Amino acid sequence: MPTEEVAPMMWDYGFGGWWMWLPGLLFGALVIGGIVVLIVLLVRSASGSGGSGQSGHSGGPPAAVGSQPDRARQILEERLARGEITPDEFRSLIATLDEGRGGGRPG
User: Fold this and answer.
1) Are the C-beta atoms of residues 97 and 73 closer than 8 Å to each other?
2) What are the residues whose beta carbons fall under 8 Å from the beta carbon of 73, sequence distance 6 or more?
3) pLDDT tens, position by position, 60-96
4) Which residues of 39-74 are buried (b: 16+ CB within 10 A; e: fewer)?
5) Which pLDDT score, from 0 to 100, does residue 15 have?
6) Distance CA 8, CA 14 (A)
7) What is the crossing angle of helices 87-101 and 68-82, to 10°?
8) Spatial separation of the C-alpha atoms in residues 106 and 79, rounded to whole Å
């Protein structure tokens, strides 16, 4: 009696079919996505932006409370220099800042 040899099907190769590869592909995509997110976070923290939404923010500790009006004035001066506000708007906003401090700014 001749013995029959059973050959595996060409699409199977003993690995269970294409659907067995699907979890591996999804996991690989997840790992690659995680690596990309990690690189973006590292680059942001190295550049100091931190995603705070403030241009020019150094990511360092906040300024002392007493220097906040000076920082506000500096921001207004930068906006004026960039042309975002007019000189009249600048003067009006500075006057508002000075009122909030309880007096005029000397000089």
Assistant:
1) yes
2) 94, 97
3) 555 455 566 688 889 999 999 999 999 999 999 999 9
4) eeeeeeeeeebeeeeeeeeeeeeeeeeeeeeeebbe
5) 58
6) 7
7) 180
8) 22
- The one-letter amino acid code at 77 reads E
- Residue keyed to tokens 């000397």: 106
Cα separation of 37 and 52, whole Å? 17
pLDDT score at 107: 46
| CA dihedral for 78, 80, 84, 88, sign (positive or negative) | positive
| CB within 8 Å of 69: residues ≥ 6 apart | 97, 100, 101
Closest CA to 63 of 78, 81, 75: 75
